[in-house]
């Protein structure tokens, strides 16, 4: 059975008359439903917050929907902080989790009252020098090193990852912050990406809760929120199963009752900063077959490229591909579905069983709503696709136009070059 797309074939063909392919389209209703499910699962905690990882889908319309649903934003750069502010996410609803951060970005975040999540113990002094004093609230990123097993390849094993502080450093880091007048403390970790094993997240919570208890004893600070990071995976491949958030929440709650409550740390806010599961399955790249060729393999050439969606080319990532109007046709052909970049990794599908594809068919690349358009680039002079929003009422709104050649040339000095010798 192939994955669903929220518009029937005729409606999609009609839409392409208004908005030529390629484009991204996001399903508002499905995004809202997923966030509600997330919030409901974690409503068993005294306090919970999901900070949407803006980098996954940095469009203010999407952020506005998420703000309405009660989410905060997890940002890693000044433009991401600015986008979040534009839609009314501010103060404790913004986590600034960056690394190798310039002073000017700390200044902006501090002025807005965003939560600053420091990546290293040496950044305490840097922040203090930048701001004149430390902010009232501070969070640190914990890198558990060998204490955390079973991590997958996108982030890599913690002891090889550049992020975060060691356990020993954190005891000193929180003590120093307390002595410098910091009043409120958070503890953060992010050790997974696209993880489908629900027990992985419960195990992460255990590490973080144990550390919060240790920090109370050794550094004299009460952690008032923990951020368990993002990393909840989505079932890109057939046969994979979505993470059961009720199961994860219940598993974490058990540990909360065993560890956090007896330590006198209740109420401690539980936070996540997921991007992928929030918008990933509810965003699609729609492209059209414009060529076919028959050499050693059968190729279908489409009008999108790796510059629109680089995950397959970059990680060999699998994305389900369907052909609009041929959902029920037998998958009796084997194709490489390819884009136009001068890179042989520009393939949306490799040796994939699909129905017979004809030039002109609309091809839907699924699960493209997170780290999709956001990771696009302009190599080979490619103009990135625009973004559409399928509203809950069935109407469609363009929320980002397609790039133009003028956009691409905007940073060039085209007048200067005429007189240049
Ligand atoms: C990328 C990232 C996230 C979001 O990851 P997803 O896999 O999209 O959930 C969250 N936090 C940090 C610090 C990140 O770098």
UniProtKB/TrEMBL annotation:
Coiled-coil region list: none
Annotated residues for binding of pyridoxal 5'-phosphate: 231, 273-276
Domain Orn/DAP/Arg decarboxylase 2 N-terminal as annotated: residue spans: 32-279
GO MF, one annotated term: diaminopimelate decarboxylase activity
Residues that, per the record, bind substrate: 276, 311, 315, 343
Pfam families with a match to the protein in the record: Orn_Arg_deC_N, Orn_DAP_Arg_deC
Co-factor requirement: pyridoxal 5'-phosphate
Superkingdom of source: Bacteria
Family annotation (PROSITE patterns): ODR_DC_2_1, ODR_DC_2_2
Active-site annotation: 342
Signal peptide: none
E.C. designation(s): 4.1.1.20
Catalytic activity field: meso-2,6-diaminopimelate + H(+) = L-lysine + CO2
Protein family (similarity comment): Belongs to the Orn/Lys/Arg decarboxylase class-II family. LysA subfamily.
Subunit annotation: Homodimer.
Protein's UniProt name: Diaminopimelate decarboxylase
Origin organism lineage: Bacteria, Pseudomonadati, Spirochaetota, Spirochaetia, Spirochaetales
């Amino acid at each position: 059975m192939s994955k669903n797309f929220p518009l029937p074939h005729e409606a999609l063909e009609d839409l392409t008359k208004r908005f030529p392919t390629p484009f991204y389209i996001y399903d508002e209703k499905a995004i809202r439903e997923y966030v509600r499910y997330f919030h409901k699962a974690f409503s068993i905690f005294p306090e919970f917050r999901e900070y949407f990882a803006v980098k996954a889908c940095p469009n203010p319309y999407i952020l506005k929907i998420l703000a309405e649903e009660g989410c905060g934003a997890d940002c890693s750069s000044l433009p991401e902080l600015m986008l979040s502010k534009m839609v009314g996410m501010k103060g404790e609803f913004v986590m600034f989790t960056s690394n190798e951060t310039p002073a000017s970005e700390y200044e902006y975040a501090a002025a807005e009252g965003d939560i600053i999540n420091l990546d290293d113990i040496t950044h305490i002094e840097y922040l203090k020098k930048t701001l004149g004093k430390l902010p009232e609230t501070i969070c640190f990123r914990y890198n558990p090193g060998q204490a955390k097993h079973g991590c997958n390849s996108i982030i890599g094993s913690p002891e090889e990852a550049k992020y975060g502080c060691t356990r020993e450093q954190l005891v000193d880091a929180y003590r120093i912050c307390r002595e410098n007048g910091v009043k409120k403390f958070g503890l953060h970790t992010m050790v997974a990406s696209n993880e489908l094993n629900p027990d992985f997240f419960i195990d992460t919570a255990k590490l973080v809760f144990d550390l919060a208890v240790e920090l109370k004893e050794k550094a004299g600070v009460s952690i008032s929120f923990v951020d368990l990071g993002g990393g909840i995976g989505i079932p890109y491949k057939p046969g994979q199963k979505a993470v059961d958030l009720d199961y994860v929440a219940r598993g974490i709650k058990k540990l909360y009752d065993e560890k956090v409550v007896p330590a006198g740390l209740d109420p401690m806010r539980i936070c996540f900063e997921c991007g992928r599961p929030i918008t990933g399955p509810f965003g699609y790249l729609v492209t059209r077959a414009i060529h076919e060729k028959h050499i050693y393999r059968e190729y279908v050439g489409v009008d999108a490229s790796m510059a629109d969606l680089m995950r397959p080319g970059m990680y060999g990532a699998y994305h389900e591909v369907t052909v609009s109007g041929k959902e029920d046709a037998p998958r009796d052909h084997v194709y490489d579905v390819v884009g136009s970049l001068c890179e042989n990794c520009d393939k949306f599908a490799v040796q994939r069983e699909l129905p017979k594809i004809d030039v002109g068919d609309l091809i839907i690349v699924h699960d493209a709503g997170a780290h999709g358009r956001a990771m696009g680039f302009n190599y080979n002079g490619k103009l990135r696709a625009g973004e559409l929003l399928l509203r809950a009422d069935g109407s469609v709104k363009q929320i980002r136009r397609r790039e133009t050649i003028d956009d691409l040339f905007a940073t060039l000095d085209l007048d200067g070059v005429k007189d240049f010798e």
